[in-house]
């Protein structure tokens, strides 16, 4: 490319006109009597040589951008969203739900189908959604109904809440989440109505899933009424690190060894990982290994979590 006599001075003048006087590249080209591509080259050389130094000043008090980006690179994620730690468990869940809602508002498109799992954090997301019936969204449960306790965490209930929040449509899955054995599950799956909903669940554009931990008696799965403390001991002994839609996996993201998964009526983990956007939402120290297992298994590609969890996930694994 053609060089000019005194190009260093020309470069400085070009950079001053562009960055200090806010002239366009075309305007500068006319003033200096050179082509616009030459101006573009001079500006690029100004940045590379250090003549121009660009500093981005983030006004946000807690800037987790570097940590978010590091985790995205480490686990090949589309996006990581970190919220502040909060000692109050309920407040922490609401902060996570709000962050997830903000992300949803940014990415949802017209006519999207959104799959939803269950959980106390997921159920709060609708509180932070601004209604927009023009989007024509459809909400679909990814798993059957949870037991007889805490109806508000029931997938169908969560789906209806979100549909009302978005002013969208919804489908319901009228089946238990867990049955006694695989044969009974297979019998359920022969029902055309259930099969159709689960097929829709496999093909959603976005999935929002809670990440459960089998090591705590405060988990959503314990609240479901399907499990007791003895069950937790068995899952822990088998090496379970976490669950998504009540389907277990170990710290490496392997799920095949857990026979219990064959008793769950819902979209299977292998199908969940094929959904274009899967947002995993989880906070609290007890969820760290569960999140790592979900990341290693590639079950999610967007993570919403709190700072201490994010730091542990990046530093310790």
From TrEMBL:
GO MF annotation: an example: DNA binding
Coiled coil: none
InterPro entries (alphabetical): Cro/C1-type_HTH, NagB/RpiA_transferase-like, RNA_pol_sigma70_r4, SorC_transcr_regulators, Sugar-bd_dom_put
Domain HTH cro/C1-type: 20-42
Domain of life: Bacteria
Pfam families: Sigma70_r4 (PF04545), Sugar-bind (PF04198)
Keywords from the named record: DNA-binding, Transcription, Transcription regulation
GO biological process, any: DNA-templated transcription initiation
Keyword DNA-binding in annotation: yes
Family note: Belongs to the SorC transcriptional regulatory family.
Name this protein carries in UniProt: DNA-binding transcriptional regulator LsrR, DeoR family
């Amino acid at each position: 490319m053609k060089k000019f006599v005194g190009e260093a001075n020309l470069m400085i003048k070009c950079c001053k006109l562009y960055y200090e006087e806010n002239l366009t590249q075309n305007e500068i080209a006319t003033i200096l009597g050179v082509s616009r591509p030459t101006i573009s080259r001079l500006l690029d050389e100004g940045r590379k040589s250090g003549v121009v130094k660009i500093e981005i000043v983030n006004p946000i008090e807690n800037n987790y951008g570097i940590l978010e980006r590091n985790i995205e690179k480490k686990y090949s994620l589309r996006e990581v969203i970190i919220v502040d730690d909060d000692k109050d468990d309920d407040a922490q869940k609401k902060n996570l739900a709000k962050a997830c809602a903000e992300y949803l508002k940014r990415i949802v498109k017209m006519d999207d189908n959104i799959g939803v799992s269950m959980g106390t954090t997921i159920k709060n997301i609708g509180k932070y959604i601004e209604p927009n019936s023009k989007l024509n969204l459809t909400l679909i449960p990814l798993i059957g109904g949870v037991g007889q306790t805490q109806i508000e965490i029931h997938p169908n209930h969560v789906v209806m809440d979100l549909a009302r929040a978005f002013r969208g449509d919804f489908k319901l899955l009228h089946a238990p989440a867990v049955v006694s054995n695989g044969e009974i599950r297979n019998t359920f799956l022969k029902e055309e109505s259930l099969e159709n909903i689960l097929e829709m669940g496999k093909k959603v554009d976005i999935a929002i899933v809670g990440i459960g931990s089998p090591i705590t008696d405060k988990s959503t799965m314990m609240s479901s009424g399907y499990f007791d403390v003895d069950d937790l001991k068995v899952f822990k002994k088998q090496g379970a690190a976490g669950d998504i839609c009540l389907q277990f996996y170990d710290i490496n993201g392997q799920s095949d060894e857990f026979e219990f998964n064959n008793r769950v009526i819902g979209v299977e983990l292998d199908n969940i990982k094929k959904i274009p956007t899967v947002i995993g939402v989880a906070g609290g120290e007890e969820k760290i290994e569960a999140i790592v297992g979900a990341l290693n298994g590639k079950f999610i590609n967007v993570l919403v979590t709190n700072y201490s969890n994010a730091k542990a996930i990046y530093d310790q694994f």
